[in-house]
Design goal:
One of its GO terms (cellular component) is cytoplasm. InterPro entries: Trp_synth_b-like, Trp_synth_b_CS, Trp_synth_beta, Trp_synth_beta/beta-like, TrpB-like_PALP, TrpB-like_PALP_sf. It catalyses: (1S,2R)-1-C-(indol-3-yl)glycerol 3-phosphate + L-serine = D-glyceraldehyde 3-phosphate + L-tryptophan + H2O. With about 450 residues, this protein is an alpha/beta fold. It has 18 helices and 15 strands. Helices cover about 40% and strands about 15% of the residues. The protein binds pyridoxal-5'-phosphate (PLP).
Amino acid sequence: MAGRTKYLLDEEDMPTQWYNVVPDLPQPPPPPLHPATREPVGPADLAPLFPQALIEQEVTTERYVDIPGEVIDVYRLWRPSPLFRARRLEKLLDTPARIYYKYEGVSPVGSHKPNTAVPQAFYNSAEGVTRLTTETGAGQWGSALAFACATYGLDCEVWQVRASYDQKPYRKIMMETFGATLHPSPSELTEAGRKILAENPDSTGSLGIAISEAVEKAAGDPDARYALGSVLNHVLLHQTVIGEEAIKQFQLAEDTPDVIVGCTGGGSNFGGLAFPFLREKLAGRMDVDIRAVEPAACPSLTRGRYAYDFGDTAGLTPLLKMHTLGHGFIPDPIHAGGLRYHGMSPLLSHIYELGLIDALAVPQQECFAAGVRFARTEGIIPAPEPTHALAACMREALRCKETGEEKVILTALCGHAHLDLPAYAAYLGGQMVDNELPQHALDTSLAGIP
Ligand SMILES: *Cc1c(COP(=O)(O)O)cnc(C)c1O
């Protein structure tokens, strides 16, 4: 049992640049298209929604982007985050595999989301924006943006998916403590929300609907911009601090991962951890399998169509080439609220199409069983989202037990569950169901997506 458990970096060892994987790929990802002209969108199309600096990062072909000093100063509140060796979990599984997890639950809101919320709020405030609008599912992203807006003195207005708004009152209190204003989505405050409510007054909402509402509000207010917590290139770019730190921490551990697993909602925590390792793999310096894990109820990579589709339900965003379940898709209200999105990061979708990563979908009872085993050995109760990565990690570790392989598995533990405990109550109380997406529902939601 003896042996080192935590690999810690100094604040001085924090990365000073984010890594952009695009120039290292064999082909560039297809561009976003304007829905009316089907031509690639230009900076002017995006200017009502995002500040110039983020529009530039969205399309940059530079391999590295400097992290502003003002952002590094805020990152110091929780970064560098620890890399743990899961020795107690290894023992429970009786596996020869070595399991590591990079833990992002040490941030002020308990997830990886502030890694991008902080730079997004910073660039907006630097360009004179006074208010940000956004959507949130489980509440992790809304809390992260609320915290970041408080840091730079911006107003923050959040549309939270109704299902989570009702299930998770503590996230609402956290966002309000940071000074944000909250609305359940669909709401009566936007045309998009009113339209949904007219068709279905009991709608439990979806990330796609909440995005429509936040985008509509920002587009109608010259002092406001919109912030997205996942999916877009600049978001994945900011999250690469996770992988850059992990690479340095593996040097301290004198070890190298053979398999990386992470959960994918829109792809940001997974991309953030995996892309710096993918750079090493593409350069021939590392041989690593990279594996995305998604819920069986919302399986965009494994069962979605790779097509141009809207990022939101009302069709207000540019068309994105991505793995999609259809922009009208409303996933079952599973407990991993952060994984209930109909699409996937276009960059990650492209990388998946290139065959550089693989993907699997896991039903939620297996995920929570993995979460409970992890909690009882490692002492951290994982957020519902990363239990998906842990389930895949445990499958791999148990395969190693059968084959005797001493593989090194790295998993992204992107958040803790302290405000998601009702999900564990449902699991422990035997009230959790596996809701694999039925084929007919998928066929219906994909009808009309070319
Ligand atoms: C938001 C969130 C996710 C899903 O988003 P990604 O962009 O796929 O990372 C996963 N886990 C946690 C803890 C989250 O807050």
